[in-house]
Design goal:
Elements lengths: L8 E5 L4 E5 L11 H23 L4 H18 L6 H4 L11 H20 L7 H11 L38 H12 L8 H15 L6 H15 L11 H6 L1 H14 L2 H37 L7 H13 L2 E2 L1 H8 L3 H13 L4 E2 L9 E2 L1 H5 L4
Antiparallel strand pairs: 1-2, 3-5, 4-5
Helix pairs in contact: 1-11, 2-4, 2-12, 4-5, 4-8, 6-7, 7-8, 7-11, 10-11, 13-14
Length: about 375
């Protein structure tokens, strides 16, 4: 079936409301829209460049944690949390009581993402994996009573104060087994060839339309994109996340999803999605270039002024790439040095403008690798 003949589904009458029942999508799709094909080619090229570039970055695993933290912060912010990336990187003891719930949601997202990527080594990208990830996402936070790790067994909605004025009412829960089975087959289909970026773009749309969980659908649906790219080895490292693009163009994101449902226009959604892949790949490449530049400035210039301390300083810099907010106790423990040595090393890094003190206090001070953190705030 040609994508131009896509049929999103239909509304079904339930008790006092109508829910949207999406059509199954595990079919033999064809693409005839030339502008979509051209955009697909451009997005594939940029994604390939990012994948290649990430393999050239020395010690890239040091930097993956920051990409994950940025994604967790941004994806959670779309759902209403207020934690910024600096707060997300801090220990719980430094977080103000009124911010701890939001902070915990971001920490859960980081753990859920890391666990899911690790689980891809032994599990296919499947409903089982999505449920495991969802379970982690909702532990001990808002939504913890909304069936963590299980597909819903009641109706949910998007927007509105009740089912009566909801913006969108997803499929009835009795349809979930068939719809989610179809989605799982579509994601992993080898029977019907389809370009990977088209497949995951359609899969994200379908997941958000089904809305299989009582809570956390947006975050799991966005995580699904990266998991797919990693599982199919389009990315050898998890270095691309679309939440920042979706947040920047939030109204277009929702408008295009809605248009696909109301006008059967999956093509417009896919164009928006591919533009997101293209722009986000470019932005990620630029971030890596800036990391390399900053690293050269620090390791080939700044810390060489420390003389005999240079070797220890190099170890400290490596630590900062994956732990860019520290205190003296953390530094002493991580580098296996005594507290006084750790404190003097931190003072050297403050003097060199590598670290910046964050609290303004004389005791219990914390320090940020600010220039590095700023690279992930855009």
């Amino acid at each position: 079936m040609d994508l131009k003949n896509f049929k999103a589904g239909a509304y079904k009458q339930q008790f006092k409301y109508k829910s949207f029942s999406p059509s199954i999508i595990n079919k033999d799709w064809q693409i005839s829209n030339s502008s979509l094909v051209n955009l697909l080619s451009e997005a594939n090229i940029k994604l390939g460049e990012l994948n290649a570039f990430s393999q050239l970055v020395p010690d890239i695993n040091f930097f993956i944690m920051m990409h994950v933290s940025k994604e967790a912060t941004t994806s959670s912010r779309i759902e209403g949390t207020q934690t910024n990336i600096e707060e997300a990187l801090q220990k719980e003891e430094y977080i103000a009581p009124e911010k701890k719930n939001d902070w915990m949601e971001v920490q859960n997202y980081i753990k859920a993402m890391n666990d899911a990527i690790a689980n891809l080594q032994t599990l296919p990208l499947s409903n089982r994996l999505l449920k495991k990830t969802h379970y982690t996402l909702l532990q001990s936070v808002r939504g913890e009573n909304k069936m963590p790790g299980e597909f819903r067994t009641s109706q949910n909605r998007i927007g509105g104060s009740s089912i009566n004025d909801a913006y969108f009412i997803p499929s009835h829960f009795e349809e979930l087994p068939e719809l989610m089975s179809d989605l799982e087959k579509f994601i992993n289909s080898e029977t019907y060839p389809l370009p990977h970026l088209i497949r995951i773009g359609m899969a994200h749309y379908q997941f958000e339309t089904i809305h299989p969980f009582l809570d956390g659908n947006g975050r799991i649906g966005r995580l699904l994109i990266t998991l797919y790219l990693v599982s199919k080895e389009l990315l050898l490292k998890p270095t691309l996340y679309l939440s920042a693009f979706f947040e920047k163009h939030k109204s277009l994101y929702y408008d295009n999803l809605t248009r696909a449902r109301t006008n059967n226009d999956i093509t417009q959604w896919l164009k928006f999605f591919l533009e997101g892949i293209k722009q986000t790949s470019e932005n990620s490449i630029q971030t890596f270039k800036e990391i390399i530049k900053l690293r050269q400035e620090i390791e080939s210039r700044d810390i060489l002024t420390l003389g005999k301390k240079t070797k220890l300083a190099r170890q400290f810099v490596q630590h900062l790439y994956s732990n860019p907010i520290v205190d003296s106790q953390n530094v002493a423990s991580s580098l296996s040095i005594n507290p006084s040595t750790a404190f003097r090393l931190i003072e050297d890094f403050v003097r060199l403008n590598i670290l910046k003190e964050m609290t303004g206090f004389q005791r219990n001070r914390i320090f940020a690798f600010e220039k590095y953190i700023r690279l992930f705030e855009g």
